[in-house]
Write a structure and sequence with these properties.
By secondary structure, the chain is of the alpha/beta class. It folds into 2 domains: 123 residues, Aspartate Aminotransferase, domain 1 (Alpha-Beta Complex); 231 residues, 3-Layer(aba) Sandwich (Aspartate Aminotransferase, domain 2), CATH 3.40.640. It has 15 helices and 13 strands. The strands form 3 sheets. It has a 7-stranded mixed sheet, sandwiched between helices. It has a 3-stranded mixed sheet with strand order 1-2-11. Strands 10-13-12 form a 3-stranded antiparallel sheet. α13 runs parallel beside α15.
């Protein structure tokens, strides 16, 4: 692609209100942040429990630096697998009720590792149409035959499963959908996996720490357990740190260690992060009060916007999307809130379907009732 074409393509994105830009923070992640010279209430982060700047995690990371230094020095399978990583994997598996777990440097890397390890040429992979980009990219890497079913449509998925000649089958789904905030029908998907002898891959990036008893995630929330389930949880959202893990049956986790290219050929994450995540697990276990406060915020926002122009999508999770419509209107509304000291990002295609540009309101236990009222009042004023 030539420089001329690059410039033209960028200008086209600008004209369509789809040119993305970064905003620079000058303070740690929190409910209120210093961003581009002013303090603003942050409704743009995935720090659902407010742990990203928790002193216990900072202390664990500092102790990790004192013991381990900074870098791991190599991939896990060469010489980068420390006792901190090993202890973390055991604790993560126990936390989500699985046999074993494997620690990855990011959720994107984990998903890119899972699907190609499970499915290949001649196999069939069934994916919800609203799955995260990492699962979409992973299904393409797998070289399996991919069938996408309408969002949450179990009848359509059943028809696809019944009609496939493939011997090996994989169903892949987000648990909490990152742009809609709804929860996948995990119990029904697990039953279909049993009936059609398929693996069920569950990306719980936005459920871990928030849903289920002790924050153990969407599977626990839905009361689902099955050896066919492969569970991916991220550690940079509610957990407040960085990285991800994949948990499941011990035999599958061993297979993943042998076959996941994004695990084998990547330098291990710094062990100091493993120590911080171990501290986070304890905070999530004991975080019932934080989850209760988050639930109060969700209820307050939904009640405050009821009857207004700004109708929220059905969601009981920390992700509360407001459909605006056109890209330009979503960008304009986000900018108006920014000027009022409220950071709420506009999400546009291709992240979401055409015609459904939206505000993505991310709530946190670290928010106060006053933060919520400020957002509600601003949105009411901007109707």
């Amino acid at each position: 692609m030539s420089f001329t074409r690059l410039a033209a393509e960028l200008e086209a994105l600008r004209g369509e209100s789809r040119l993305r830009r970064r905003r620079m923070l000058e303070s740690p992640c929190a409910a209120e942040v210093l961003a581009e010279g002013a303090w603003r209430v942050n409704f743009a982060a995935n720090d659902y429990l407010g742990l990203a700047n928790h002193p216990a995690l900072a202390a664990a990371a500092q102790a990790g630096i004192a013991r381990w230094g900074v870098g791991a020095g190599a991939s896990h399978l060469v010489s980068g697998h420390t006792a901190a990583h090993e202890a973390l994997e055991q604790e993560l598996a126990q936390f989500v009720g699985m046999d074993a777990a494997l620690y990855f440097s990011a959720g994107y890397m984990a998903n890119l590792g899972i699907l190609p390890a499970l499915a290949g040429r001649g196999d069939a992979l069934f994916a919800d149409r609203l799955n995260h980009a990492s699962l979409i990219d992973a299904q393409q890497l797998s070289l399996a035959t991919v069938r996408r079913y309408p969002h949450g449509d179990l009848a359509a998925l059943t028809r696809l499963l019944e009609s496939t000649p493939a011997k090996d089958r994989v169903i892949a789904t987000d648990a909490v959908f990152s742009m809609d905030g709804d929860i996948a029908p995990l119990a029904e998907l697990a039953e279909l996996a049993r009936r059609y002898d398929a693996w069920l891959v569950v990306d719980d990036a936005h459920g871990l720490g928030v849903l289920g008893p002790q924050g153990r995630g969407s599977l626990a929330h839905c009361g689902v357990a099955d050896p066919r389930i492969v569970y991916m949880g991220t550690l940079g959202k509610a957990a407040g740190v960085h990285g991800a893990f994949v948990a499941g049956h011990a035999l599958f986790v061993e297979w993943l260690l042998q076959r996941a290219r994004t695990y084998i050929f990547t330098t291990a994450a710094p062990p100091l992060l493993a120590e911080a995540v171990r501290a986070s697990i304890q905070l999530m276990r004991a975080g019932d009060a934080l989850r209760a406060r988050l639930a109060e915020h969700i209820a307050a926002l939904r009640a405050g916007l009821a009857g207004t122009r700004w109708q929220l999508l059905p969601s009981d999770t920390a992700i509360q999307p407001v459909i605006v419509g056109t890209d330009a209107a979503a960008v304009e509304l986000s900018a108006a809130l920014w000027q009022r000291g409220l950071w709420v990002p506009a999400i546009r295609p291709p992240t979401v379907p055409e015609g459904t540009a939206r505000l993505r309101i991310s709530l946190s236990a670290a928010h106060t009732a006053e933060h919520l009222q400020s957002l509600i009042a601003a949105l009411v004023a901007l109707q």
